[in-house]
Amino acid sequence: MEQLIRNLIYVHAFLGGVGLLTGTLDIIVRKGGNIHVKAGKVFSVAMIGSALISLFVARMPGHENLFLFLIGIFTIYMVLAGNRALTFKPNIKQQANITDKAISGAMLAGSLVMIAIGIYGIIEKAPNNVLYVFFGGVGLFMTINDFKMFRTFKEHKSAWLTIHIGRMVGALIASITAFMVAGLNFHNLLAWLSPTILGVPYIIYWSRKVGKKQVAISKVPHS
Hints:
- This protein has helices at 2-28, 34-57, 66-84, 98-123, 130-152, 159-183, 189-218.
- The protein has 223 residues and is mainly α.
- The chain has one domain (2-213).
- Helix 1 (2-28) runs antiparallel to helix 2, helix 3 (66-84) packs antiparallel against helix 4 (98-123) and helix 5 (130-152) packs antiparallel against helix 6.
- The radius of gyration is 18 Å and the shape is globular.
């Protein structure tokens, strides 16, 4: 069993590395181009595969890690939600379906669990439980925005792109965090939080850029 777990960890690390490289490539290349689309597909498969393996390993005897298990779920949510956001492009669908709501609803519940665990741990003075509150809060914020988008995506034509950017960059941040913690053995709050803190301004920049572009388009007179 231990050899199986070790092999799974190797595959997990390999897929995480593929996700890190293709995700970084997606950041660099022209958005919406052929390379961006193809790299994004590889990134999605690699990240989901890596996260699924982490769910299994994090529950095995001698490797139990509830936090990494929940982060694996968080990563899967971000990749799935980021790709589902593409289906909200204009004229593709009329309303959010059960799959959209199930993905965001499951993460919403998971986020509340993370926050509850974190608060309890902080009260009990357990180490690093602020991480549960931090990532649970991020997940709660994202899923609330998902449900807002489900209701208003027809009026806000660029909402799908804002969600897509936020979720996919969030998944990339997860791969960078995993590399720092597992690959470089930086087991401290700075390693866990710095990729998110540095990545959020990038998400905000593109979200605002997309929003301004949509406003400019809406002001163009129509004949």
